[in-house]
C-alpha cells in the first residue's frame, strides 16, 4: 500500500540473487526438446522496470533466454488490440484446474479453451491473429522490439524447429478445436507461428521493459498507449488467476502479483501502479515453473510488502 | 491506486441500487431447499465498511439473509488461527476449474480438495475445526458477533435442518475424503456444523463489518488483531483465485477484487488498504452467484477505479 | 461347439491345479481389511458342476472362502426376480471402462451406475432389494443355501464388520446416488446388507452348484426354475461384458466365458448348455481378480475349446 | 444350443424386414458428412451366410452401402495376421465406457486406445498396417474382394474425401497418440487410408460372406484359412465386448451375438459354429448404431434362440 521505491535497489536484488544460488540444483531444466535441455542451469537473473522506465537489475539480467509461454502474454495483448471483447468468443477467462496441455477439459468444454494462457488458449489466440495479420511472428517481434526498445530481438530458429518437431500434442489440441468449429486457419500454419513465438529470446531487462505498460494503465515507459487502462487491468486479472498454469493459486498465495511464466525459466510479474519485474533461472519445479524465479519473486514481495492482496 | 474515498457515498450506492432494479427478474433464487426458495427475490442491498469502521449503505443493507458459502471465509479464518500453515496438509490452494460440488476432481486428487472455498474444502476445514473446538458453530457465531459487533447474530435452524435433509452430496464428498484418510471426525457431526454455518443470517452491514479486517492487514475496525498481515494477504489471494467457484476468473476480470459469494445472494469483497463491501440480492446467475450483487460490484469498481489489478 | 464332457475329469482338473502351483507368490491377497489379508495365500481349488448336478473337483474345492463381489451375481438374480425389467430404471447395462469403485463416472452419469457388477451398481441393487424384502441378507442366504444345497452357508460377521468399518467409499457412492434421487433407503441400512452379502462364505463346489442354473436356461440342477431362459441369457451377457470390472474385455479375450470375480479370489464362470465352474485362489492380479483362478479358467477353456465365441 | 437351420429361411427374413418397416422414421441418418446424409433412409436389408456359403437374404440385401466402422473389423483381421500378439503393444482389449471418439480416455490412458474398434484404436491399427503394407487400402480391398467373392468392391472416393475434410477429431486423436509415442507414421498418410477404408461400399450379402470365416473357426466359405481358430475366437470376444461402442453391453443383453456396427447403418454379427449375418438400414439411434438393424438382429436371435449366452 505504501511501497517505498527506495528499498528496491540493485543491492537488494543482488542480495536476493546471491541467496538464491543455494537453491541451484533443486530443479530440473525443461528437457522435452534438446535445445532447451542444453542450457547452462546455473544462471540467475532479475530485472525491475519502474513505470518511468528506470531499470534495476542483478545477476544474468541481460542474458537472452527462450521466453516460451511468456509469449502468450504478448500474443494476448496483440489479439486484444485487434479484436477487443470479440476475442472472448471461443476463449474462456477461467483458471483451468488442469495441466497446461490437458485435452480432457478441452473436450469437456466443447473445444473452448479455459483461458488464453494454457496451450490450447494460446493456440486459439494465434489462430485469431493468423486471421488478421499478414505475418504474425514478424509482427509480434516488431511489438516486442518496440516495447523492449531492443531492435535486435529475434526468434531462435533451431528452438522453433525443435518445438515443431515435438509439437504433436499441440497439433492434437488445435485439431480438436477445429473439430468443434473453434479454429479457422490451417493447423500447420498456426503451429508454425506458435512455435516461433515460443522461441523468441529476450533477457530479464527486455521482458521487464516490455511488460511495464501493464503496471502503468497501458502506457509504455516511452509514453505510448499500448492498451487502455481497462484492458490492462483485465490482462493483469487474467495473469493473477491463470498465469502460472495449475500453480496460479499458489503463486497468488505466495507471491501476490499477477504473473506469467515460461518453461525457459522466466517469470514476468506486475505490481500495478509501480513496476514490472522479470526473474529468470532455468531449473523448473515439478509443475513447470522456474523454482528460483518463483523464490526470487516470493522474497521480493515478502520483503517489500508489495502483494496486491 | 489513488482511491478517492469521498466518491464512495450513500448517494453513489443508492444510485447503483436504483439502476440495479432493472435487472430484477433476470436471475433465479436458489431452489434446492424450500427455505431459500421462499425468499422475496426483489431485494437489493449494499454496504461498505471502511477500515476505520465507517459504514456507507443503500437499499436493504440491514436485512439479514442466509450467508451460505460466505461462511467458508470465516471458518477458514478460524482454522488458520488454530492451525497456521499446518492447515494446508490435505487442503489445496488452487482454483478448481470445476463446479463447487464436483466429485470428479476430488477422486482424481485422492481426496484432497482443491481449495477451502469449494464444498469439499469447506467440509475439510469443518473437520479440522471439529478436531480442536468444543462447539464449532457456537464459536463461529461468537467470532462473527464480535467482528460484526452484533450480539444478535444466529443461525436459522429451519434452514440448517433443510440443508441437512438435502445434504447427500456433501455427505458423499465427506465420505470420499474419509476413504482417502483425509477426514477425521464422524461425517454426520461435521455435516451438522457445516449446515448450521451456512444457515447463519447476517445483513450486508454485518458482513461488511465482519470482513473489513481483511482490508486492514488483519486488524478489525475496533482495533483487534484477528489475523497477521501476512495471513490476511493470503486469504485475500485465495478469495481472488477461488472465491467465486468456477466464475472466479470472470469475477477477477470484471470486478477485480478478492471476493466470496454464497447462494443466499450475498457477495463479500475486499479492497485492501481501504474497505470491505457486501452486496446482496437473492437471484442467482447460472453459475450460482448473485446476478445483481455481481453487477453492483462491477459497477462499483469500474466507476471508482478500484480494481486491485 | 462340440464339447466333449468326457474330457472334463477330476484328473484333468487336478493336473491344472498342480501346474498352477508354480504361479503361487506372483499375486497379492486383498489387504484392505485385515480379515481378508490374513488368509493363507497358498490355496487353489476348482469345481465344475454339470447341468445335471454332477460335480468334478480338484484342490481346495470344498474350502469356504469369502465370496465378496460374486455376491453381486446373486443379488442381481434376486432383484431381477422381484423387479423384472423395471429393475433397469436407474441401473445401466454397459461396461464401465473404469475401476470398480470409481466416483468419476457415477457423477458424469448423474448417479446412474453403469452396471450391476461395479460397486455402485450392486449398492443400487441392494437398495432395490431393501425396498421389497424384509431381511435381504437372510433371504440371500436362503437362496444360496437352496441353490448350493448347503444349509450351513453363512456370512462371516467379523469380515462384515471389517468391511463396514472400511466402507467410506461405498458410503460416498451411495450418498452420491441419493443426491441424484437414485437411492431410496437409508444408506447405513443398505451398506449393512451389502457388507454382509460380501462376507458370505462358500466353497468352489457351493458356488459351482449355485450358479449352474445359469448354464441351464434358468433351471437348477434339482430341477427348479430360478429364472426364465431369457433372463438367464441376459445375466450371462452382463457377466460377459461387465463381470470382471475393467478386465472384462481381457477375460472375454483370454477365457471366453461369462464370469464374475470377487476379491476373495473366487471366479465363477458359465458355459451355457453344459456347466458352471468356480475357481479359487486368494492372490490377486493388479486389477483385483485372482491371478491363479484366471489362469485356471484360461487353461480350461483353451484345452477343452469351450470359449463361447 | 440346438439351432435349427431350417427355421432361418428367406421367408423368415422377409417377414422381419416387413415388420421392421414400421420403425422407419424413428432414427436419423448420419449427417456429419453430406455424402452420408444424402442417402435414402427408407432402405432395409438383411443377409445370412451359413458356414458352407449358403446365403439367405431379404430386402435390399444386395444394395451396396458405406461400411464405415465395419471396416475396423477387417483392418483388425489384417493387422492380427501381420503382427500376431505383438499387435497388442499400445492397443487395449477393454470396452471403453466412453463415446467412440473420446479424447478424455485417450489422454488418461497415455495414448493407448482401449480397443481396436473405437476410432483411436482403429487409427492405431491403420498406423501399424501402414508400417508393413505398401498400399493398405488396396490390400484391404483385395482381402474383402476375396472374402466376399466380389471383385467389384471399391471405395467411394467422394465419401472418402468428405470424411477427410471432416476429419479434425480423428487427426486430434492421431496426434495425441503420436505425442505419447504410440503412432509411427505421418498422420495425414494414415488418415488417408482410414478414410478410404470407411468409404468402402459393400452390400449385406458381401459383408455376410466376408465375415462368415469368423463363425467357422477362421475358415472362409471357400475353404481358405484366414485366421486360426484361436484368433477367430478372440476377435469374436472383442466384438462381443467392444463392437458397438458404448452400446456394446446393451447389444450383448438384447442381441447376444458378437457384432460390429458402422454409421452407414450396417451391423455384422456372428453366430459361432453356424452363420454370420449382416443387417442394414441407414437411420441411426442416439448412440450411432442403426436402429432397424439392431431391431432385426434382436428379433432374429430372440425368435431363433441363437444368443451365445
TrEMBL record, chains A, B, C, D:
It is an enzyme of class 3 (hydrolase). One of its GO terms (biological process) is glutamate biosynthetic process. GO terms for molecular function: glutaminase activity. This is Glutaminase. The keyword Acetylation applies. Substrate binds at residues 69, 119, 163, 170, 194, 245, 263. Homotetramer. The keyword Repeat does not apply. Its EC number is 3.5.1.2. The lineage of its organism: Bacteria, Pseudomonadati, Pseudomonadota, Gammaproteobacteria, Oceanospirillales. It catalyses: L-glutamine + H2O = L-glutamate + NH4(+). Keywords: Acetylation, Hydrolase. It comes from Pleionea litopenaei. Pfam families: Glutaminase. InterPro entries: Beta-lactam/transpept-like, Glutaminase. Belongs to the glutaminase family.
Amino acid at each position: 500500500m505504501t511501497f517505498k521505491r527506495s528499498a528496491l535497489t540493485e543491492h537488494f536484488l543482488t542480495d536476493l540473487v546471491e541467496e538464491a544460488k543455494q537453491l541451484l540444483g533443486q530443479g530440473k531444466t525443461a528437457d522435452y526438446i534438446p535445445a532447451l535441455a542444453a542450457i547452462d542451469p546455473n544462471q540467475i537473473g532479475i530485472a525491475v522496470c519502474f513505470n518511468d522506465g528506470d531499470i534495476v537489475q542483478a545477476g544474468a539480467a541481460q542474458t537472452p533466454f527462450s521466453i516460451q509461454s511468456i509469449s502468450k502474454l504478448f500474443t494476448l495483448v496483440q489479439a486484444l488490440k485487434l479484436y477487443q471483447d470479440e476475442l472472448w468468443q471461443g476463449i474462456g477467462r477461467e483458471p483451468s484446474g488442469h495441466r497446461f496441455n490437458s485435452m480432457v477439459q478441452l473436450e469437456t468444454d466443447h473445444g473452448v479453451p479455459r483461458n488464453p494462457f494454457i496451450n490450447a488458449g494460446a493456440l486459439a489466440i494465434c489462430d485469431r491473429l493468423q486471421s488478421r495479420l499478414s505475418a504474425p511472428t514478424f509482427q509480434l517481434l516488431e511489438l516486442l522490439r518496440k516495447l523492449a526498445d531492443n531492435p535486435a530481438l529475434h526468434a531462435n530458429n533451431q528452438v522453433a524447429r525443435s518445438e515443431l518437431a515435438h509439437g504433436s500434442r499441440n497439433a492434437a489440441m488445435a485439431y480438436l478445436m477445429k473439430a468443434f468449429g473453434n479454429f479457422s486457419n490451417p493447423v500447420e500454419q498456426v503451429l508454425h507461428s506458435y512455435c516461433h513465438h515460443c522461441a523468441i529470446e529476450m533477457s530479464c531487462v527486455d521482458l521487464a521493459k516490455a511488460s511495464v505498460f501493464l503496471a502503468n494503465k497501458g502506457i509504455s515507459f516511452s509514453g505510448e498507449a499500448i492498451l487502455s487502462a481497462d484492458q490492462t487491468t483485465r490482462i493483469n486479472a487474467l495473469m493473477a488467476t491463470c498465469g502460472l498454469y495449475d500453480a496460479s493459486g499458489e503463486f497468488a498465495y505466495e507471491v501476490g502479483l499477477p504473473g506469467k511464466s515460461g518453461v525457459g525459466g522466466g517469470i514476468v510479474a506486475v505490481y500495478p501502479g509501480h513496476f514490472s519485474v522479470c526473474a529468470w533461472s532455468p531449473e523448473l519445479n515439478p509443475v513447470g515453473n522456474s523454482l528460483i524465479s518463483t523464490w526470487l519473486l516470493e522474497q521480493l514481495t515478502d520483503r517489500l510488502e508489495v502483494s496486491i492482496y
